[in-house]
Amino acid sequence: MRREADNNLSVCQLLVSFIPQTGSHDRTREQADDMRLLLVEDDPELGRRLSDRLRNADYAVDLATTRSEAEDWPDLDKIAAVVLDLGLPDGDGIELLRHWRAAGVSCPILILTARGSWQDKVEGLNAGADDFVVKPVRFEELQARLNAMFRRHMGKRDSALEAGTLRLDPIAHMASDNGEDLQLSRKEFALLHLFMRRAGQVLSQADILEDLYDLEAERELNTVEVLVGRLRRKIGKQRISTHRGLGYRLER
Fold this sequence. Notes:
By secondary structure, the protein is α/β, with parallel strands linked by helices. The protein has helices spanning 2-8, 11-15, 26-31, 44-56, 67-71, 93-102, 118-126, 139-154, 186-197, 205-212, 221-235; strands at residues 36-40, 60-64, 81-84, 87-88, 91-92, 109-113, 131-134, 161-163, 166-169, 174-177, 180-181, 202-203, 240-243, 247-250. The chain folds into two domains: 2-154, Response regulator (Rossmann fold, 3-Layer(aba) Sandwich), CATH 3.40.50.2300; 161-250, Winged helix-like DNA-binding domain superfamily/Winged helix DNA-binding domain (Arc Repressor Mutant, subunit A, Orthogonal Bundle), CATH 1.10.10.10.
């Protein structure tokens, strides 16, 4: 049985490649951009360990452990990507994938599973997966595959965004104003990325919290006020307007 095949690999065997590696490059971590991922993994310990590694790489991560939980996930349209295990306790991950695609879910989906036969890979990719990775895998490879998947999903390698004299490249993790590099913290960069993706739109504090922080993180509205204030000091106060009772807008 396929479910049994997933279980035959012990938790320790699957986790060995997610243990932090020495000598990793900080630049690789900087390229991730606080984008929200949904991790669908039935093993709580593996899910926790992988979630921690992804959060350390500056992704916001939500964890679902069953098919029903993932299928009913709120605001799936705000998820940047899904990392999907196939051996779920209440149904097969392939069927969940087909359900999502039939329902119009368009975000990139990476299958991460212990199943490694060519038949499984063909079935998964034909069902709508954007990539198929077999456990165990080094975290650095998984992160590189996620970044490559994001580039393909954007439709071009030059994924830079522009708003007036501001320019932001989410893959290279660089931002500039009038050609001068901006020195931004990771959260400041993530906030500017959100504003530039939705330039000219008013974003509520709840919108910003939901995009920048995972569900398990403490969410306080004053966190947004402080972060917006810091970003204003670096790009110019007039660039981000306040709409009382509604939120903030990056002017085009």
